[in-house]
Amino acid sequence: MNEKKTLGVPEEDSPPEVLGTMHYVLVSLGTQLGRLYDEKLSQEIGPLWLSALGKQRNKLYTLNDPHFVLSEPLKFPDSPTRWCLPKGGAFYNLLEDTLRVRNAWAHFEIPVFTFETLKPSILTIQQFAQQAGLPVASLCSAVIKRINAITNGQYAPPQLANHAGDIESQLRTLEEQLTGAKAREDALAADILAAQALLDEASIEKVGQPTDEYVRKLEDKLLTAAEEMERLQFLIESLAAQQDEPDHVDLVAEIAPGQEWTSPLPPRRTVMMGLANDLFDETTKTGIADEFGPHAREVISTWRSILTPMTPVFVTSHGQAVAHLDGVPTYLGTLGESPVATTVHQQQFAQGFFIPYTYTLRLNGRIEDRETGESLLNVNPQQASVMAQRLLAAVPRGGRLRVTTMGEVARHHDGEWVIVAQVSPAEWFPGHLS
Q1: Using CA atoms, how far apart are residues 403 and 421, in angstroms rounded to an integer?
Q2: What is the residue-averaged pLDDT of the chain?
Q3: Which pairing describes strands 320-325 and 328-334: parallel, antiparallel, or unpaired?
Q4: pLDDT: is 123 or 203 the higher one?
Q5: CA 85, CA 78: separation in Å to the nearest integer?
Q6: b/e map of 361-397 (b: 16 or more CB within 10 Å)?
Q7: How many Å apart are CA 293 and CA 316, to the nearest integer?
């Protein structure tokens, strides 16, 4: 059964289609909820309500940002945005679930990009949108209908795109499309400036002069081009993150070496060997380093300054190691990963531990705290542009970042954390580095 192609509705169960659908739904959600706030609060508070709210919070807000429109009423009971939404605990539980969905997809926490991961997220957004009275609920219904049709073999796309290639080839294709989208956006922006300049110069209407309607149409085209560019950026970031993620997704939640291990102790008990850089398994009567690849002995050698011979070390099946330091179970590191190495000299390892924050570097230079969704531009606008240029020069495709206590910025790539830049406390998120 063939159906008419609908914007934002997937054509097949593939990573580009899944990511494109989720991004379009989130953009629609942010735009519609932002418009709902703006229409009501512009009347009740005034057209400058958003900038006034930003000054009160000491942050720079973007009206259509899904993170802002979802987190603002959730975090602040006194927020005027609550005037625009239904009341009651059940609704705010659903709002929290929707924000959690947004954060999971925006921060690349989804293990695989398939209908199996897409469908429950769309259902959550649909339920929220229905209660909030947003048109995106209809789009969610169409997405669910299409997923069911494809899954049941009842839908054949009019022209099946070729996604059989590897992720690297998909990235190259998307980057070529992004270059074209940027060129179209630049051309449209130049046309708008030229048309607006002619309008400003004309004191009376003349034949051949652009009209306000003409400028409005150009602006609509520019918005469409910008949305296309944003969609392509999202796809590239997500596919690049998928390419860089390790195969195992059942590791304990991300934790930095030196932090307390709050999960149950790993079942495998080993002890630190006295002479060899290895851990001895008392059950199998063998060393275990060779099980975890070429970096394991190097990693174990870095623990000698804090672990004496015969110290018990508990190890997961993926090589995450835990030992008691001053009676506290402490994460030491992962045997399968090399210590954080610098790409410049390739012979030094990072000093200190990772700080307990993770970040996302986006293609447009936006640097986000993965936990809160806040960007460096919001909390440190003076340094955001400089840091964006510095980091994008080192990692043009962006990706997941961490920072050590020494201010070394590391990017996750091929299962390892690789140093890409240096940052000072004054250049970074306030309170994250000391």
Answers
A1: 9
A2: 78
A3: antiparallel
A4: 123
A5: 13
A6: bbbebbbbbbeebbbbbbbbeebbeebbebbbeebeb
A7: 15
Mean pLDDT, residues 257-269 taken together: 82
Stronger pLDDT, 297 or 370, i.e. the higher one = 297
DSSP 3-state of 410: strand
Residues 6+ apart with CB under 8 A from 294: none
Contacts of 399 (CB under 8 A, 6+ apart): 237, 240, 241, 244, 360, 361, 411, 412, 413
Strands 286-287 and 279-281: antiparallel
Highest mean pLDDT among 120-129, 179-188, 202-211: 120-129
Phi first, then psi: what are they for 399, rounded to 5°?
Answer: 140, -165
Strand order in the sheet with 341-342: 341-342, 416-422, 408-413, 399-403, 359-361, 367-369
Measure the CA–CA gap between 85 and 37, rounded to whole angstroms: 9
Q: What is the pLDDT of residue 410?
A: 85
Mean pLDDT of 191-196: 62
The answer to whether 118 and 23 have CB atoms below 8 angstroms apart is no
Task: Give the pairing type, strands 416-422 and 341-342.
Answer: parallel
Residues contacting 86, CB < 8 A, separation 6+: 131, 132
What is the DSSP secondary structure assignment for residue 82, as one 8-state letter?
G
Q: CA-CA distance, 303 to 257, in Å (whole number)?
A: 11
Neighbours of 207 (CB within 10 A): 4
pLDDT tens figures, 3-19: 455 677 888 888 888 88
Amino acid at 368: E
